[in-house]
Amino acid sequence: MTEQIRKAAPLPRLIICGDVFAAAGASLPYRELEDYELVYFPIGSRTVYEVGGKRIRIDRPGYIVTRPGEGHTYEFDPDVPTRHLFAHFVWDPLPPREYSTLLAEAHYVPETSPLLIDLLQRIFQYGEAKAHRWETRCNKLLYVLLDELAALYELGAAAPGGHGKLLPEQLQRAYDYIGTHLYRTIRVSELCEHAGWTHAHFTRQVRHYFGETPQMLIMRLRIERASELLPFGKWSVKQIAYAVGFEDEHYFSRCFRRIKGMTPSQFRDRYRHDRLHNIALPDEPPTGPRQHRVFRFPQPAEDAST
């Protein structure tokens, strides 16, 4: 099984990493690399990256991706030294395109995700300390970093002017508000007020980031919360329906089946797990912040609708 996983998802292999400051006014003349280069600029500056006749000013924190054989130059900030962290690596064979869009087409990805920064810093920590199994661990960390950066890039690339943010702060507030108020009726006007946006703009943003209307988003989150509660097996379908904001058990069951492809009872029987039997649970399903958080990963044999 381990060999099959390795063949299905080969790891990138790091060659060299560095955390350096380029002198003010320095430049990197035209070059073509034999490997991939990922460069992180923690601070925006007047540094310019030129590739394929396009000049890209790195005026925000972010990542530069350069592919093997891709001619490029750097002109670093003329006034102050420019810190940048770089990693050269090879990846052969590359994973399927859906996992490597970043490496196939991206150049500049403005992004300040703390997770990415932490992964990059750990690569440097393990490499400098020559920690136990440091080479394999660093390659695995790079794999996770690239996969996460690719997901952020793909999300941002799909938006006009988007740059890979998971959610705007205003939309995240509204999303969190839904999650803490699923037990009752939620009006879209409440969410607009919480986000600080007009109804029209809020609806456009929800469609853009979630691909559905605000009403559909609320419904889906109710069903997702119900699907978290059902496998515990302690509460009836009716109790769970009320806990996630439905006043009619039969309407809840119809909505659940439409989204999950099976009835609530079928879902509970299918995903009941022995590990959940000894958990301390209240007599009624929780309606506030979740005390127990359990989620499952789809398996290859499962229907995609579940």
Full CATH superfamily name of the largest domain: Regulatory protein AraC
Give the CATH topology of the largest domain.
Answer: Jelly Rolls
The tally of strands reads 9
The CATH level-2 architecture of the largest domain is identified as: Sandwich
Detail the poorly predicted runs: 1-6, 158-165
N-to-C order of helices and strands = HEEEEEEEEHEHHHHHHHHH
Distance linking N and C termini: 25 Å
Structural class: alpha+beta
Annotation field: number of helices: 11
CA radius of gyration: 24 Å
**Major sheet attributes:** 5 strands, antiparallel
Strand order of the largest sheet: 1-8-3-6-9
Strand content: 15-25%
Short synopsis of the structure:
The chain has 306 residues and is of the alpha+beta class.
Polypeptide structure, described:
The strands form two sheets. The protein has a five-stranded antiparallel beta sheet with strand order 1-8-3-6-9, covered by helices on one side. The protein has two domains: 2-157, Jelly Rolls; 172-276, Homeodomain-like (Arc Repressor Mutant, subunit A, Orthogonal Bundle). It is elongated, with a radius of gyration of 24 Å. The protein contains eleven helices and nine strands. With 306 residues, it is of the alpha+beta class. Helices cover 42% and strands 16% of the residues.
Please name the defining characteristics of this protein.
disordered N terminus; Jelly Rolls; 4-stranded antiparallel beta sheet; single chain; 16% strand; 306 residues; elongated; 11 helices; alpha+beta; 5-stranded antiparallel beta sheet; Arc Repressor Mutant, subunit A
